[in-house]
Amino acid sequence: MLRQACVLSIAFFVVGTIGWAAPAQADVLLIERVEARKDIELPKRGELKDQVERKFGKPTQIHAPVGGGSPQHPPITRWDYAEFSVYFEHNHVVSAVLKRTSKYETGPKAVSGQ
């Protein structure tokens, strides 16, 4: 019972400190770039290196593996292509991400002095 009272007290303190008057603000996510680039097919999780190479060709750069000292930290290799990078754990794709491009992404706006 005491624990519930403490949690409830903390919740009221946080809500009271934050207040309800100011609307929440957040940065705009760079979704427009991703939506504009839906025409780019990316390698899928689980695909093998040779499958990726057959489908997308030779990468522009292959980075040396990082990690690999233990089963909990397997070697991760990155292959760079013109518009995306592919990350492999051993021989399998774990992730593929689009690269930043100035055409679609200009970065955050500078904060103006007020």
Automatic annotation (TrEMBL):
Protein name per UniProt: Phosphodiesterase
Keywords recorded for this protein, A-Z: Signal
Annotated signal peptide: 1-26
